[in-house]
Amino acid sequence: MKIDTKTKKPQEQWKPFTARYCCSADDHHANFGSMSSKKPSSKNLTAPAQMPSFRKLSFSDSSLRSTSGRLNEDLAQTFAGDLHDFQLSELRGATQNFAAHFLLGEGGFGRVHKGYLEEGLKPGLKSQPAAVKLLNIEGLQGHREWLAEVIFLGQLRHPNLVKLIGYCCEDEERLLVYEFMPRGSLENHLFKRMSVCLPWATRLKIAIGAAKGLAFLHGAEKPVIYRDFKASNILLDSDFNAKLSDFGLAKMGPEGSNTHVTTRVMGTYGYAAPEYVNTGHLTTKSDIYSFGVVLLEFLTGRRAMDRSRAEHEQSLVDWTRPYLMSSRKMRCIMDPRFAGQYSIRGAREMGLLAQQCVSLNPKDRPKMPAIIETLENIQNLRDMAITNGQWPVTPKNSRNDNSVGKGRRQNSLGCRSAAVAASPRTK
Ligand SMILES: Nc1ncnc2c1ncn2[C@@H]1O[C@H](COP(=O)(O)OP(=O)(O)OP(=O)(O)O)[C@@H](O)[C@H]1O
Ligand SMILES: [Mg+2]
């Protein structure tokens, strides 16, 4: 359900864009719950060449409300050379008229179709597969998020951010054209019943890639707060390299002496930081909280919020909290699909990291560079549970589920395990 250690200082300043409405899509968003179901620094993150550097944009209130023609002029002028300005007919052609069998998925903002962009469709455009997102533009909200996406992704380029190829703004239609990510979203791999289990090493690789994307956003003098970090917004290429997508809720960080940005609360249940939900005060630490929730998803194979489970197990953060303190307890909540193929120390360290990230006090949450270093260190650990005789943990008479709860049986390792059917994993 969508609701809305030494870090090297960035070497280059980046200019905030001034589009009053472009980066404040929340101004007209519905409130929480009202939308449908959204160590030292890592060297390559702080290299000057990779620091975001925004050009100053000057979209006005009138251009936001103006006709698509006027807006197209503004966008074309601003993003000439960076983004292609597609016509609807061109995107119809690329997607076989948005054929059902080209549908990749559907989120709160509309459907996403696979397409193929032919060489010569636009000057300088190489032939390539693409993902075309059609925004559901009922109300101003869709348009604002569309515009925020164009403005953020039109300027931000990083290996761990999905590449925006272009956009289409024709009459009421609003579309976005992205590089095609062959393995879809992390959500599909982690939670879908039929999906093959993502190995421990792959989960770590994805976590590190996503962390680098987030570190890039946070790592500037004037950070971008992503605000929608979750499994469905982490897209995967053929080698499981992670890229962040969906910048419709992104927001420029606080200016001057301000410690936070005040906004309407947007995001996704289960991922949004409690202080942000309660106060609307947004900081980069809100993203860190969401990152911690995704780490918990990696460990457990469970969703941030799963209403189909017993009440005390619905919120992943609440359910896992008592188990993150020790390796012994951690075993009880690990994704049973690992079948022991995970590092015991690594799981413990990832659990501790997740715990810090989801601290109730935002100040206790680590920064992205430290998170990356911890995850990279975990990558080197090889003490797999299965070879250390610490697997299985599931008693014979229980199903393949990592449920732990009151009044349930304990197995030989001290994990209480539900002798009930695994809860369905549905979105
Ligand atoms: N660039 C892409 N390449 C390949 N598949 C994509 C791409 N972008 C999106 N998809 C697919 O489309 C699905 C829907 O994406 P979308 O971002 O619209 O919604 P969502 O993230 O699932 O939900 P929400 O609206 O809450 O963000 C994704 O889960 C993914 O499977
Ligand atoms: Mg998404």
Automatic annotation (TrEMBL):
By its UniProt entry, which InterPro entries does this protein fall under? Kinase-like_dom_sf, Plant_Ser_Thr_Prot_Kinase, Prot_kinase_dom, Protein_kinase_ATP_BS, Ser-Thr/Tyr_kinase_cat_dom, Ser/Thr_kinase_AS
Major enzyme class = transferase
Put simply, this protein is called non-specific serine/threonine protein kinase
UniProt gene name = PBL15
Query: Its function?
Result: May be involved in plant defense signaling.
The record ties this protein, via PROSITE patterns, to: PROTEIN_KINASE_ATP (PS00107), PROTEIN_KINASE_DOM (PS50011), PROTEIN_KINASE_ST (PS00108)
Q: Name one GO molecular function term.
A: protein serine/threonine kinase activity
Please provide the record's keywords in A-Z order.
Answer: ATP-binding, Cell membrane, Kinase, Membrane, Nucleotide-binding, Serine/threonine-protein kinase, Transferase
GO cellular component terms, A-Z = plasma membrane
Per the database record, which ranges form the Protein kinase domain?
98-378
CDD domains attached here?
Answer: STKc_IRAK (cd14066)
